[in-house]
Amino acid sequence: MVHAANCRRGMRFMLGSDSATGVRMFFRRLPPILAVLVLAGSVPLASAGSTVVSWPRAATTCQETSPGGVPASFAAPVAMDMGGHSDVTSVAVGELDGRLVAISAGAEHTIRIWDMATLKLIGDPIPGDGPVAYGTVDGRPVILGRSHGALQRWDATTRLPVGGPLPAGRFRAVAFGELDGRPIAAAAGTDGAHVFDLATGRRIGPPIGTGIFSAVALTRVHGVLLVLTGEGDAVVAWDPVSGKPVGKPLTLQSEFIQEINTIGTTTIGGRPVALIPTADLGVIRWDLVTREATYHSLEGRFGPSSLAVLNGRTVFVSVETVGSIATDSFGSRLRSSIAVIDPATGERVSSFEIPGHVTSLAVGDLGDRPVIVTGGRDNAVRAYDLATGRESAFPATGGPNGDIYEVNGELRGRPIVVAQGNGDDRSPGVWDLGSGRPLNAPVRLPGRITSFATGEYGGRAVLVAGIAFGDSSIRVFDLASRMPISEPLVGYDGSVNGVALTEADRRALVVGAVDEDDAAGDSSSRGAVRIWDFPSGVLLHDLAVGNGPVGQLALIRLVGRPVAVTFSATRARLWDVGAGKRMASFRIAKRSAPVEIALFDCTTVAIVATGRTVKLYDLATGKQVERPLLGHSQQVNSIASGRVAGVPIAVTDSPQDRSMRVWDLTTSQQVGTLQRPSRYLGSLSISYLDGRAVLVGGGREVLWTWDLGPAA
């Protein structure tokens, strides 16, 4: 009989010496899971290659009792610094210290300043949101943006706030201007529009309108300042001092309700006009004197726009939707078309395509060349020469794109997080868990990553990655140097659902769970567990599942031997990695989420979500543990396990019932809840930092961390 104290000692050993190989990873469509666990009481690694693990093992009589100490409440989640924007929501252009700069705001709530010539970051990010505008107040460069829901001014040189927040309501657009020689700003949104003196912070006139405005501009007609606001079916000119409309508004018919996000003003034929890009009515040219509108003055479907001077004439620069454009799984365009048009004649001066779904655009002059800067859903800030359409600087890329998935590891004795976005992302990045900051450059891989894990080889922290859709291989990289170790491991044509690096009989082994394509392209026809000698690359074992896909992969240890466990929809299979043999197969409840592996009661347990119920299976016996986790009202999508205050716990997440729950696995009782940062969380795992348990969750273009309390 092994006592509960031995279970806790075994778990500490797993966390301390096996943390580099004890990692896990989840995918929505190809959900791999890897967790190397040491079974308490096991013998040292055997050297005889003939050793075969017997199964089922005798049931243990050890049942842990909870020492208590799990916190009753937990702190709010904290977003990690992913190294850049997560969607670029707004851009502006101006001068700073004699050079042209771009200002950008992202969905991760930072504002950044870039040198337009190089697109290199200038200084630290500013905590704030878009929309952004850029201008001069009392001789100093000032950024306008949003902070805690209010209009805020920042000194672009010092990055410090200028004065207090301005109560502009929930604004969606902001513009710089001038009134009686004083710098002013107009902000418009769901609470109408507001105009402020930027030097004093005082309001100019009463709030303007009560509608929901999505665009705002400041212009002059016969020397009189006007505020132009745009909403779905109208554009209105306002007197900023009285807050009253001036003249007849531009009213669209109800069947032509548009999303008006941009209003540009210029002079055509000596007359002041507003250019309003729309999706269905082309560019509307609105004469601000006669108030006559010309629909389809420029033909096309236009989005974010700006005005520039090219070769001595004013041109209209806009994102244009042309024909059928490929999109990713989130509906974002993979490429955007930029149109450059003379608004006076309708002549198309040029057009060119750029990567990504562009949502914001601004124009400035770099020397004697007009340059446009764009931001979009691919997290990148890009700059292009307007005359040639060529990229003028290497793009400033942000964090991973799409939904982020992650695994834990260790580098130079510190816990790290390796993460990547989904879609076509081929570059997993590395973040320090303690500081939350990215480390060096990401690893660039030759194809789409279907699964990855961290491990240790020769005293080095390594990344093992399964590659498909362009290069069917498994590759191993040194995480410190980002250099490959050995040649690619090949021998399959399909996708890898899970990878692992382990050791048996004094040999380093790479294990992969592979779904092979047949001649008709059906990847579900052949699933296998394959084992390679590392680093020679020799394929040692090709173990067929029998029918259907292989499913998820986990790596555990039984009596000191590495054992691979695969989980298909309703079945768990155990494979002796060293001997290259299938050990066992038993039924599990139909799962609805990736399976998690935990260690308690002196055995290794699979935690299986079956809808709203979470069941436990002893992998040493194949028997269900009669202590399910009951409490969720909707389907559980993600699970993590670890230890807090010496107690084995599980964390479960259900986006449908919008709850994250913490469970004491010794009693299967819920002991707390966690605050969810957003509706979507794609992966959960528990790591350990300075003696504390840290939950890491992958979300939409962000990684979240929760401090769960002391580990022991």
Structural account:
- By secondary structure, this protein is an all-beta fold.
- 2% of the residues lie in helices and 50% in strands.
- It has 1 helix and 52 strands.
- The strands form 14 sheets. Strands 2, 3, 4, 5 and 6 form a 5-stranded antiparallel β-sheet that branches. A 4-stranded antiparallel β-sheet has the order 1-52-51-50, with no helix packed on it. Strands 13-14-15-16 form a 4-stranded antiparallel β-sheet, with no helix packed on it.
- It starts with a helix and ends with a strand.
Concise account of the structure shown:
With 712 residues, this protein is mainly beta. The protein is 2% helix and 50% strand.
Largest sheet: 5 strands, antiparallel
Overall outline: elongated
Q: Regions with pLDDT < 50 over 5+ consecutive residues?
A: 1-49
Termini distance?
23 Å
Number of strands: 52
Portion of residues within helices: under 10%
Number of helices: 1
Radius of gyration: 30 Å
Report the portion of residues in β strands: over 45%
Q: What layout of secondary structure does this protein have?
A:
Blueprint: H1 4-17, E1 78-79, E2 88-96, E3 99-106, E4 110-115, E5 120-121, E6 126-127, E7 129-137, E8 140-147, E9 150-155, E10 171-179, E11 182-189, E12 192-197, E13 215-221, E14 224-230, E15 234-238, E16 250-251, E17 264-268, E18 271-277, E19 283-287, E20 293-298, E21 302-310, E22 313-320, E23 335-341, E24 348-355, E25 358-366, E26 369-376, E27 381-385, E28 404-411, E29 414-421, E30 429-432, E31 448-457, E32 460-468, E33 473-478, E34 494-504, E35 507-516, E36 526-534, E37 539-544, E38 552-558, E39 561-567, E40 571-576, E41 581-587, E42 596-600, E43 603-610, E44 613-618, E45 624-629, E46 638-644, E47 647-654, E48 659-664, E49 669-674, E50 683-689, E51 692-698, E52 703-710
Antiparallel strand pairs: 1-52, 2-3, 3-4, 4-5, 4-6, 7-8, 8-9, 10-11, 11-12, 13-14, 14-15, 15-16, 17-18, 18-19, 19-20, 21-22, 22-23, 23-24, 25-26, 26-27, 28-29, 29-30, 31-32, 32-33, 34-35, 35-36, 36-37, 38-39, 39-40, 40-41, 42-43, 43-44, 44-45, 46-47, 47-48, 48-49, 50-51, 51-52
